[in-house]
Amino acid sequence: MEIERASIQLAEAVKAASDYTGQGKVAAYIPELAKVDSRMLGAAVCLPDGTILSAGDADVPFTLQSISKICSLIVALCQNGQKHVFERVGKEPTGDPFNSIIKLETIKPHKPLNPMINAGAIAVAGMIQGNGVEQRLDAVLSLLRKMTGNPALSINEAVYCSEKRTAARNRALAWFLKDSGVLATDVEETLDLYFRHCAIEVTAKEVARLGMVLAADGVIPETGERVIPQEVARICKTFMVTCGMYNASGEFAIDVGIPAKSGVAGGIMAAVPQRMGIGVFGPALDEKGNSVAGVKLLELLAKEWNLAIF
Amino acid sequence: MEIERASIQLAEAVKAASDYTGQGKVAAYIPELAKVDSRMLGAAVCLPDGTILSAGDADVPFTLQSISKICSLIVALCQNGQKHVFERVGKEPTGDPFNSIIKLETIKPHKPLNPMINAGAIAVAGMIQGNGVEQRLDAVLSLLRKMTGNPALSINEAVYCSEKRTAARNRALAWFLKDSGVLATDVEETLDLYFRHCAIEVTAKEVARLGMVLAADGVIPETGERVIPQEVARICKTFMVTCGMYNASGEFAIDVGIPAKSGVAGGIMAAVPQRMGIGVFGPALDEKGNSVAGVKLLELLAKEWNLAIF
Amino acid sequence: MEIERASIQLAEAVKAASDYTGQGKVAAYIPELAKVDSRMLGAAVCLPDGTILSAGDADVPFTLQSISKICSLIVALCQNGQKHVFERVGKEPTGDPFNSIIKLETIKPHKPLNPMINAGAIAVAGMIQGNGVEQRLDAVLSLLRKMTGNPALSINEAVYCSEKRTAARNRALAWFLKDSGVLATDVEETLDLYFRHCAIEVTAKEVARLGMVLAADGVIPETGERVIPQEVARICKTFMVTCGMYNASGEFAIDVGIPAKSGVAGGIMAAVPQRMGIGVFGPALDEKGNSVAGVKLLELLAKEWNLAIF
Amino acid sequence: MEIERASIQLAEAVKAASDYTGQGKVAAYIPELAKVDSRMLGAAVCLPDGTILSAGDADVPFTLQSISKICSLIVALCQNGQKHVFERVGKEPTGDPFNSIIKLETIKPHKPLNPMINAGAIAVAGMIQGNGVEQRLDAVLSLLRKMTGNPALSINEAVYCSEKRTAARNRALAWFLKDSGVLATDVEETLDLYFRHCAIEVTAKEVARLGMVLAADGVIPETGERVIPQEVARICKTFMVTCGMYNASGEFAIDVGIPAKSGVAGGIMAAVPQRMGIGVFGPALDEKGNSVAGVKLLELLAKEWNLAIF
Q1: Which residues share a beta bridge with B271?
Q2: ipTM of the complex
Q3: Do B238 and C254 count as a contact with CB atoms less than 8 A apart?
Q4: Is B66-198 in the same CATH topology as B3-61+203-305?
Q5: Catalytic residue status for B194
Q6: Where on this chain does substrate bind (chains A, B, C, D) (predicted)?
Q7: Do the beta carbons of residue A104 and residue A92 sit within 8 Å?
Q8: DSSP string, B140-187
Q9: Active-site residue, A20 included
Q10: Strand, helix or coil for residue A281
C-alpha cells in the first residue's frame, strides 16, 4: 500500500461519503449525544507499522458506546475463560434490535444470544472482576490505554451521567438477566460499569489503532507486544462479522465484508486482518443505529482497497 | 339460598377439593411464601345480607398478591378516571404468562395489555396518587378496610420484604414501562407501593366480603354504603372474567363461569353478581399460578349452586 | 320491554351510529367483500317470544364470515364432545390479531389458543364429521336453518369463490396445523369447508334469531325446541365474551358487556342472556376487523336497555 | 500442503470424529431420510488443482437438502440480479430455527430474513426462471453438473417424493410468503422445485468440489472456467458464515471459522478461500439440524490446518 496514494484515496472517500450524513440522525435517547453536529465525518487508518492516515474529523473526541462491547468482552474472556463466559452469553446473531428484550424470555435458557447486543454486553460487564466499579473499570481502561497508546484515555463524565440518568431500557434488560440468574453481580453496580465503558472517550485515530491491534491478532503494531491472546482476538473479529453492526450485520458483511463494530455515538472500529485498522466517526445514524456515512465510507474503502475478507 | 344447607354443601365441597392440594406447589419465587403448608384449603361465602359461611382454613391469614390488582385498579380509576387509566394500560387479555415482558416490546404503543398482568398492575400502581408511598398505600388500605370491615387490615412485613428483595422480574417490567413512558412516577417507589399492596394480609372470610361488595355493584352489604362507583365495580368484574385467572382465564370462564381474581399466595376472590362473594385460600398452585384446589372448589360450587354468569 | 318504544329506540340508535360508518373501511382482502357499500347499517332484535324489531339495512344479505365460527364450534362439540375438541383447540384469548400465526409456533403444544381465531376455527372445521365436504357443510347449514327458521339459507357462491382464491394466509395457518398434528383431515378439503361456512349468507334479522337461540340457552324461541345442548350454548356465550370480537374482545366486554361475535363482512351476533338476540350489519370495519358503527350501535343499545351482563 | 501428510491427517480426523456420530440422530421428519445408517461419516477435500483427498464414507450418495440453498441462490442472483433478489429476501441472520415462521409475521415488510432459512430459500426458488418446473430445475442442475464435473448428477426420487408428501411446515411457509406478496409464482410449483433441489443426490467428494469452486471465487479448479460471477461467489461465502449452519452459525463461526453450509441429510459444504473445498457426510444430526460428527470433523481440520478465516 502506497501511503501517499492511500492518503488521497482516504480523503476522497471521506469527502464522497460526507454527502450521506444528511440521511441520518444523531442518537436522541441519550440527551448528551443529541447535542453533536450531525454533519461531522472523520476516518483514520492504522497500518501494521503503526502509521496513521486520516481525513476529516479524525481528532474529534466521541464516546465508544457499543464499540466498548468488544473491549469488555476481551477483558471478560481473559479473566474468566471461554467456558465461563459462553455459559452466560451465547454466540448467535439475533435478527433483533440491539436493545430488544424478547429473546431473553423466549429462548431457554434465558441467556442473551450474543455479547454484542445490550443484554449480552451487560451480562459480560457482570463478569468483569475487580474490587468495586473503579477497579473493574480500570481493567478495561488499562487495556484500551495500551491498545491506543494513549495513557490519558478516560471517561466523558457528561455522557456517562446523561446515559446513567436515562437508561431505563438497559435497566430492564439487566433486571431480567438478574431474574434469570445470568447476572450474578449487583445490578446497579454492573450497569454503572457498563455506562462507564460506553462513555470512554476516543478519536477516530485511536479507534483505528484498536482495530489494528485486532487485525494483528492481538499485538501492538510498533512494539510487537501482545496485549490480547490470539484466540480472543479471533473470537472478537468473528463476533464483529456476525453481530458487530447490530441487526444490519448480515447486510454489512455482504456489502462491505470487513469485521467491524459500531456505536451509537457514531463510531465504527474495523479490523482488516493483517492489513489495517480503521476508525470512523460520523454521528448521523441510520434507523438501526449505525453511522450512515460511516458505513458508506467503509463500503467505498473496501471496494477501493479490496478489503473484504470473503 | 338456605343457609344451613349451603353451609353443609360448602364444607363438603372444601373436603372434596382438598384432595387436589397435592397436585400443586406453593409459590417458590418469593421465599416467604414457600414456607406455607401446601395442604391447607379454606373457603368463605359472604351473602348479600352480610352473613358469612365458611369451611376449612378460612381464618388463616395470607397475602393478597395479585388479588390486590383489583383493589389498586379501583383506586386508580376513582382517582384518575377511565380515560387517564386506559390510555396507559389496555383492556385486552393476552394469552401470555402474568410476568411476561414480550408484548411490552411487540405491541405498539408499548402499553401493558391489561391491569391484571404484572406489567399492567405496576403501571396502575404508578397512577395511585398521594404524598409518598405511605399515603399512596393508605388510599388502597382504607378502601380495603371499608370493604372488609376490618380496620386493622395491614401488611405482612416479612412477605413484603421477601418480595421486595427478590423481585428482579418485576423490576425489569417496571423499567421497561419507564422506558416506554407508561410509568411517570419513580420506579422504585412505585414498585415499593406494588409490593406493599401485594403483601396486604387477609383471610378467606375477608376476601369473601371483598367479592360481595363487587357482587353488589360497589355497596357494603349490611350498611348499603357505596364504596365503589357502580361503573368501576362493573369494569372490575369484567376484567375478572377476561383476565382474572392469569392465562387460564378463558378456561376458568368456561369451566366455572364466575368473575374471579387469583393471587400466588393461593387466594381467589370471586364475585357472583347480586348473589354472593366467595373467598378461597389454597396455597398449592398449578403451573399458571392459580390455586389448584381453589379452582376445583369453585367449579364444584358453581355446579352445585348454579353460579355461572353465562 | 315495551315493543313500540323499543322499536323507536332501535331506530334512533341505528341513526346515531350511522355517523360512524365513515370511520371504517370494508374488508379489502376478499375482493368480493370490497364491493359492498360501506355506508350501510342495519340492526334487528329478536325477543324471547320470537318477535323481531328492526331498523336500517336489516334485510340486506351478507356473509357470516367469522360469526360462522360459533356455528361450526357448536357442531364440532355436538359431534365430538368437549374433551376431543379442547384437546385440539384451547380456551384462552390471545391478544393477537385473528389471523396471527406466531403463537402456533411459540405455544407448546402447537394448538390454537381458541376457536374464535382463524387457526382455531380451521382446526374446528377439521373436526366436523361427514362424508365429503357437502355433507360436512350440511351439518352446519341444517343447524343454522333451524336456528334462523329459514330453510333456504345457503352460500353466496361469489364470496366463497373469491375467498377460496385469495386465502393464502388461511392456507398457511392450515398447513401449520397439519404439521403440528392438530389437523387430522385433508387440508384443502377442510379449508374448502371453512370457506363455505364463512360464505353462508344471512340478514341482520336472521342473525338476531341466532343470537336469541343462544340467549335462550339453545332453545328455539317460539317452539321451545332445543337445537343446542345447554352446556354447548353456555360455552359459546363464554367464548363470545372472552374472544368474540377479535383482539378487541376485552375492550368490548368493558365498554358494551354483551356476549357477541363479529365477522369481517360487517355482521355482529349478540346474545343477551334470556332477554334478546341482536343482529347487526355494518360493513365498514375498524382496524381490528369489527364493524365500526355496529360496535357503537351495541354500545348505545347496551346503555339504553341496560344489557351488560357484568 | 503436502498431499500425503494431509491424506493421513484427514483419515485420522474422520476416525476421531466418528466417535461423535452416536451423539446425534438422523432427520426423522422426512421418512426416507430416517432410513439412513446414523454411524456413517465421510469427508473429502478438493484442492485448487482439482486433487481430491478423501476418507470414510466419501462415496456414499446423499441428498443436498439445505446445501442446495446456496445453489439456488446462485442461479437466482445470476438470473435476476442482486437488487431484485434482495428486495424479496433479506441478508440478516435470525437466531431462530430454520423452519421458524414467527419473523415472517413480526418483521415488516414480511420478507424472510435471509435465503438460508427455509422461508428464504422458498422465496429464492420462486425467483428461478424457466418454463415449467423441469426447466427451472435444469437451471440449478446444470450449474451443479458443471461445478461437480458429474454430468449424471440427478434427483433421488424416493427422497423427493417422501419430502413432498410430508412437507406441511414448508407449505405453511410458502403460503405465508404468498400472502405477503413475496412469492409471485405458483405455490405448489415453487415448492415442487424446492423439494427437487433438496433431493439432488451427491457424494462428499462432489460436495468438496462445490466448495472448491466457491473457494476459488467461482472458477472450476482444473479448467479455470468461470461458472459463477466473483461477486456472487463472495455473497454466498458471506451467507455461509453468517447463516450457513442454521441457528448455530455464530457458534460455528467462532469454533471453526470456515464458510460452510449444512443440510439435514448430514452433508456440509465448506469453502476455505483460495485453499480448498471440503465435503462432509455424517447423517447423525444435532438438535439444530447440523451433522454432529461433521461439525466436530471440521473443527479438527480447522485447527490442524489453520483454516479459520478470522
Answers
A1: B277
A2: 0.94
A3: yes
A4: yes
A5: yes
A6: 66, 118, 163, 170, 194, 246, 264
A7: no
A8: HHHHHHHHHT-TT--B-HHHHHHHHHT-HHHHHHHHHHHHHT---S-H
A9: no
A10: strand
Q: Are D211 and D279 in contact (CB under 8 A)?
A: yes
In this prediction, residue D28 carries a pLDDT of 84
- C-beta of residue B110 within 8 angstroms of C-beta of residue B104: yes
Mean pLDDT across chain A, nearest whole number? 96
Straight-line distance from the first to the last Cα atom of chain D, in angstroms, rounded to the nearest whole number = 20
pLDDT of D128: 98
Percent of chain A scoring above 70 in pLDDT? 100
Residue A161 near residue A234, CB atoms below 8 Å: no
Burial of C110: CB neighbours in 10 Å, binned 0-12, 13-18, 19+: middle
Q: Which three cell numbers stand for residue A265?
A: 455515538
Catalytic (active site) residue A35: no
A29 known ligand binder: no
Proportion of chain B above pLDDT 90, given as a percent = 93
Which is the catalytic residue, given A54, A66, A180, A262?
Answer: A66
Contact between chains at A114 and D248 (C-beta distance less than 8 A)? no
Q: Is D118 annotated as a binding residue?
A: yes
In this predicted model, what pLDDT tens digit does every residue of C119-153 receive, in sequence order?
Answer: 999 999 999 999 999 999 999 999 999 999 999 99
Query: Are C54 and C44 within 8 A, CB to CB?
Result: yes
Rounded Cα distance, A125 and A115, in Å: 10
Class of domain A3-61+204-304 (CATH, top level): alpha beta
Subunits with 3+ Cβ pairs within 8 Å of B are A, C
pLDDT at A108: 87
Is A105 known to sit in a ligand binding site?
Answer: no
Domain boundaries C66-198, CATH class: alpha beta
Q: What is chain D's alpha carbon radius of gyration, rounded to the nearest angstrom?
A: 18
Distance CA D227, CA D217 (A): 9
Q: How far is CA D300 from CA B18, B23, D9, D257, D271, in A?
A: 60, 50, 10, 12, 15
The residue extents of the domains of chain A are 3-61+204-304, 66-198
* Entry pTM: 0.95
- Is A175 within 8 Å of B169 when comparing Cβ atoms? yes
| Pair C64, C198: CB distance under 8 Å | yes
- Kindly state the DSSP code that residue B278 receives in the 8-state scheme: E
Identify the band that residue C34 occupies on the pLDDT scale cut at 50, 70 and 90.
confident
Q: In this predicted model, what pLDDT tens digit does every residue of D272-297 receive, in sequence order?
A: 999 999 999 999 999 999 999 999 99
Three-class SS of chain D: CCHHHHHHHHHHHHHHHHHHHHHCECCCCCCCHHHCCCCCCEEEEECCCCCEEEEECCCCCEECHHHHHHHHHHHHHHHHHHHHHHHHCCCCCCCCCCCCCHHHHHCCCCCCCCCCCHHHHHHHHCCCCCCHHHHHHHHHHHHHHHHHCCCCCCECHHHHHHHHHCCHHHHHHHHHHHHHCCCCCCHHHHHHHHHHHHCEEECHHHHHHHHHHHHCCCECCCCCCECCCHHHHHHHHHHHHHHCCHHHHHHHHHHCCCCEEECCCCEEEEEECCCEEEEEECCCECCCCCEHHHHHHHHHHHHHHCCCCC
Which stretches does DSSP call E strand in chain A? 42-46, 52-56, 62-63, 201-202, 260-262, 267-272, 276-281
pLDDT tens digit sequence for D80-111: 999 999 999 999 999 899 999 999 999 888 89
User: Does residue C268 carry a pLDDT above 90?
Assistant: yes
The distance in angstroms from the start CA to the end CA of chain C is 20
How far apart (Å, rounded) are the C-alpha atoms in residues A259 and B84? Answer: 49
Residues of chain A with pLDDT below 70 are 1
CA quadruple A210, A215, A221, A225: dihedral sign: positive
Under CATH, what is the fold of the domain D3-60+205-217+233-305? Answer: Beta-lactamase (3.40.710)
Measured from the Cβ of residue A81, the count of other Cβ atoms closer than 10 Å reads: 10
Query: Are C273 and C211 spatial neighbours (Cβ–Cβ below 8 Å)?
Result: no
The CATH T-level fold of domain B3-61+203-305 is Beta-lactamase (3.40.710)
